[in-house]
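Lecture 7, part 2: worked example. A protein chain together with cobalt (II) ion.
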Amino acid sequence: MSDHIFIKSAAEIDAMRAAGRLAAKTLKMASELVKPGVSTEEINEAVHTYTLEAGAIPAPLNYGADPSRGIPPFPKSVCTSINDVICHGIPSKKEFLKDGDIVNVDVTCILDGFHGDTSRTFLVGEVSDSAKKLVDVTWKCMHAGIEAVKPRARVRDIGAAIAKLAESHGYGVVREYVGHGIGRGFHEAPQVPHYPAKGRNPRMLPGMIFTVEPMINEGSHETYLDPVDKWTVRTADGKLSAQFEHTCLVTETGVEILTDWKYIE
Ligand code: MF3
Ligand code: CO
Ligand code: CO
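Predicted complex, written out as structure tokens:
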């Protein structure tokens, strides 16, 4: 991947606002399906159809093949990640939501060539207090990261804010999967780690657009990639994981959340 960080033009920013708004609307539509007994394939079909009817393309479908590493293209139009699945869960007609689960639904659409990417973790029926707390803290972690987004600040400030809050609760912050620049590309520079990672630490400048999408584990930060499907990422210790994601624009004064539900409500 190129390490060039694009500064989006006013016209590109408008296109990204529209893509972000559609991704948010799609996620909200999907959230209304979340209840015990629903299959993750039903959520996939609803997202797929809704996206096409809006004149857009579901970005996950057929994304990310890497033959050199034996990775097949992602086979579905949305990611659905239940309980100990951290991210990239594959919807299935054999997988049903059940009372007490937590499920992350991660929507990415391509509208007029530009991507909008957003996810939330939802509670299915009656959920344990410990799971509710993990989901609540993860939402706050995403917002703590977004509050660090401002011109001249550095990308590492985002991860530092997230890890400080998560670790104060004894939670693990996933390291292998990070936020990312986004625009005409699904995953552009910069990488946005959710912990204070060593290495590249660019300054944020107005016109940059990237995601903030912390994955927070109830236990260890360590991950385990499904050796069969090569996509599903689980916690190594089998404990719960939650995630929230917004697509964010750096403005002259701070941040604009392009996938904020306030723009669709
Ligand atoms: N939406 C995910 C992200 O936030 C990426 C999913 S890639 C897929 O970056 F292929 F699994 F869809
Ligand atoms: Co993303
Ligand atoms: Co996403």
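The chain has a mean pLDDT of 98. The chain has one domain: 10-260. Keep this in mind for problem set question 3.
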